[in-house]
Amino acid sequence: MKNINTISHKNINKSNLYFTRKEFSKILNYYSLGVAKGNWRDYSINFTKYEAYFHFYKNTSEKPSISIIKNKSKKNNFRVYYGFREPLFSNKLENLFSYINRKNIRLIKR
Q: Is residue 52 situated within a structural domain?
């Protein structure tokens, strides 16, 4: 029988990069606003030694519509891929979210 690993704080690999609680809270708040508007339905999180990923999905079977990547070695340690646009770089999540929100504004006729 194979060994089964449980999810616990004891099993976390200390060399991987993670989002801080404050960063994770900001990302989830932004994600929940998108869910309320009907923009997203799913998300995924992935951690490697040098990067942490948070992906937003419109549908589970599609590619992510937004990907937030935290990089360990760069000065501007946050990178956002938004659709097929060029990636955005910043050292603060708020700057990236405000830029994405400006791109989502639409003019509605009365």
A: yes
pTM: 0.74
pLDDT tens by residue, 38-97:
888 999 999 888 899 999 998 878 888 889 999 987 676 899 888 777 788 888 888 888
Answer whether 37's CB lies under 8 Å from 107's CB.
Answer: no
Q: What are phi and psi of 21, to 5 degrees?
A: -60, -40
d(CA 71, CA 78): 6
Tokens at residue 93, please?
């999540």
DSSP assigned state of 11: G
CA-atom Rg of the chain in angstroms: 16
Q: Please state the domain count of the chain.
A: 1
Question: 6 lies in a domain?
Answer: no
Domain that holds residue 94: 41-105
